Amino acid sequence: MDSTFSVSKGCFVFKKPNKEKNNKRKSKSKKQLTTNQPETELWHTTYIDIWNNVKSKIDDLNGSIYSKFISDTVDFMTTSNITTNQSIPTACLLTGVNLPDHESLFGLLATNLEQSQPPVIVATLFSEHFSSVKNAVISMVSQLLNSNDDESDSDEEMDESLNSVVKRSECTISTLIEWYSQQPNGTRIAVLVKDYEMCQQTVLQNFILLLSYYIKEIPIVMAIGIATSISNLHNSLPHHVVTKLKVKMFVSEASMVFLNNIIDQVFLKPDCSFYLGGRILEYMTEVFLYYNFSIKQFIESLKFCLFEHFYCKPLNCICIAHESAQEALFDSLDKNALEEITKLRSVDYKLKIDSNFKETFLQLIRDLKACINDFHIGLRVLHILVADLPHSPLGTQLREMYCTAMKKHIIDNTSYKTCLQLLKFLSKDDILAKFDKIIHVFKNVKNNQRTAIALKLVQSYVKRLKESHLNNLVIENHKPKDKPKENFQATSRSQFKKILMDNIKHEDSRPMTEFEKARSESLDHFTDIILRQFLVPPTTMPLNELLIFDDLPSIKRKIVGEDRAAQYIAFVNPQHYLSCDCCELEFTEQIFKTMPDISIVYKLHLESRFDQINIYDWLQKFISIVGPGQNDNDNDDDIDPVLQSRFVRAVNELQHLGYIRPSKYKTDHVQRLTCGSC
């Protein structure tokens, strides 16, 4: 078969709709736009304001994490001595296999190098540039000589630009030496190699040897991005090439550090105006961990969730607004919007529209915000208590506890009961250190009556623990329990179980010291009085849908697309995407000649009961649908070449998409690679 062609290059024809109907639709849309203009501006401006605030926090956070890594690398590349022994100062950037956002990292490094003193001119090379030494030199020289122009890092960078100052044929080392002689004194040239493992090693070796040969005329420094380990550099490059490099290693933070900081410092803060539900955050974290490890895509997913939460929903915008503006915005709502409030699942039709409806609604919103504020405080207190426990029953990260606590009251969770048992084995110094951190958290909260009460209780726990003695036994006045019989021989499993339970109860009733009793009672009281009040899940409060976005089904397929399912729908029912009347189906197996050729061919190949499909029979079925008159002629040579070419093109497209492949056993057959809709 000939080379395949991509479906993306196909051309689909859409019939023009009737002008009168189109004009009517336009007039209706204009009326709707004018009547709903305030609501449209409200949700859009709210979305833009919140996203700009979130994005600025994320940028500042990423900049602070990257700052030391970038500054150390820039200092090395700008201050390292370039000797005459043909050794190139090389910074090996260990970015890790779990950091695919290399473009932003190398872009930030290039920006800082260009702004440094002495001046540094940067050229960034990718793996596609190392198809040959000549191509790598041309790409490097063209970027350096045209550094004043706006160059992009796309694949078109290798092609000749119409606005280039220097042609590609003139991009040689001699041209670079002549150009460098006109630059200010102290200027350095930095060559950044982004993906080292993807480069052709022989080409990269010759390229390094070439640069080292001209280092006397041009001061060159390099930065190589390595995803695995520094040993890979020494194992892949021969000794005579490694000796030309003066290597220093720089390790970047793992992408998990960025993820935890973004969630903890931006979204799990009471001052954040956008709250994620436990299911949404858990799903997005799983996508990050098991799909791409990309911070950029994680941020885009958050942006989409924010957009989905506010799109054409004025009620959600009113809840975010300041209390002084909520009443005016509430008065602008129509009757349909008020009825939507009563239909919310958290309200369960218990909220009725009456004269006190506005005051009740605003009071419920204030209670919900107070619950969210207390929830975040209790979550950080819980993190201090259980984050460093053995085996981490509730996890080590704040986001893990957030996802668990949002679904159900975490105090009733069996994992927390395990944590409580482990806490009762802590030493005096450890338990006091945890309570001191909790006191620090409560003191940082202002204008919160519940926090002030909790602070006094924790201080009383600390005072009691400090005054308790480690060796003094506490004898309680209670009726002593009979000691279980030790020599009792069990005749069944139930009796043996009873003996074990009696022994455990007897051991638990042993005398405790003053510290053990104070520790146990303080932790139990702290759990029942403080944590149970602070960690009430906000998802159990009325109107939580207006503030907390937890609609997982609406975004699940949009964040992680199902390509195969979308292709199956397009092939089986093309009217779903084309919106044409000629392809409207009554049942799924129906085939029309007006359908795209690839849809007809795909449906026909599904009818085969075997993996091996005869191409000739397939063609005859296709012609019987598209050109019924062709089957009346028994001469195979009289097949319309247009229909035959259409069939071959559709089959090639199916092969390109991975549904079929040429058979290894019969030349006139193809093998089906999928089963049904898979």
Short description:
This protein is of the alpha/beta class and 678 residues long.
Secondary structure: elements and pairs:
Elements: H1 19-35, H2 37-79, E1 88-94, H3 102-114, E2 120-125, H4 133-145, H5 173-180, E3 188-193, H6 201-213, E4 220-226, H7 230-236, H8 239-242, E5 245-251, H9 255-267, E6 275-276, H10 278-292, H11 295-310, H12 314-320, H13 323-331, H14 335-342, H15 357-386, H16 398-407, H17 414-423, H18 428-443, H19 449-467, E7 473-474, H20 493-508, E8 512-513, H21 514-534, E9 548-549, H22 552-559, H23 563-572, H24 575-578, H25 597-606, E10 612-614, H26 615-626, H27 641-657, E11 660-662, E12 669-672
Parallel strand pairs: 1-4, 1-5, 2-3, 3-4, 6-9
Antiparallel strand pairs: 7-8, 10-12, 11-12
Helix pairs in contact: 2-3, 2-9, 2-11, 2-12, 4-5, 10-11, 10-16, 15-16, 15-18, 15-21, 18-19, 19-21, 25-26, 25-27
Could you characterize the architecture of this molecule?
The chain has helices at 19-35, 37-79, 102-114, 133-145, 173-180, 201-213, 230-236, 239-242, 255-267, 278-292, 295-310, 314-320, 323-331, 335-342, 357-386, 398-407, 414-423, 428-443, 449-467, 493-508, 514-534, 552-559, 563-572, 575-578, 597-606, 615-626, 641-657, and strands at residues 88-94, 120-125, 188-193, 220-226, 245-251, 275-276, 473-474, 512-513, 548-549, 612-614, 660-662, 669-672. By secondary structure, it is α/β, with parallel strands linked by helices. It is extended. The protein starts with 18 loop residues before the first helix and ends in a 6-residue tail after the last strand. The relative contact order is 0.08.
